Amino acid sequence: MDHANHPRLDASEYTEAVLTGAAVYGPGDEKVGTISHIHGTGAGAQVVIEVGGFLGIGAKSVSVAAQQLDLMRNEAGEVHAVTNWTKDSLKEMPEHHH
Q1: DSSP 8-state assignment for residue 94
Q2: Strand-by-strand arrangement of the 23-25 sheet
Q3: Predicted confidence band at 55 (pLDDT cuts at 50, 70, 90)?
Q4: Looking at residue 40, what DSSP letter applies?
C-alpha cells in the first residue's frame, strides 16, 4: 500500500472515536498491531497498541505517543497508522496495563 497520498490526521483528530480499531503497519507494510484505545486527546495523546496474539489471546499492549505514529486515512476514509517499529520491537516495549 502506498501511503504517500493518504491525508494525514490533524492532532485534533487524535481521539478515541477516530483512532480505536485502526491498524498499525510496520516498515515493510506488514500489520504489526491495532490501536485498542487511547489516553488523552490531541497532540499529547498516548496510543495503546495491541501487538500479536490471535483473537485477543496472547496479545501484548504497549503505549506510545500518538505523535510517534504517522496517522492517516486511506482512499476509503479508514484511519490507519504507519511506524518504523516492527512487531518484534513493539513486543520488546514495556507492557501497558489497563
Answers
A1: P
A2: 60-65, 46-51, 31-39, 23-25, 79-82, 70-73
A3: low
A4: S
Choose among 85, 72, 79, 76: nearest CA to 26: 85
Under DSSP, is residue 22 helix (H, G, I), strand (E, B) or coil? coil
* pLDDT at 56 exceeding the cut of 70: no
DSSP 91: H
Distance of CA 16 to the CA centre of its chain: 12
Rounded-to-integer distance, Cα 18 and Cα 14, Å: 7
The cell for 78 is: 479508514
Strand partners, 8: 72
Closest by CA position to 36, among listed 55, 25, 23, 54: 23
User: What kind and span of H or E run contains 19?
Assistant: helix 16-19
Alpha carbons 23 and 20: distance in angstroms, whole number = 9
Residues 6+ apart with CB under 8 A from 55: none
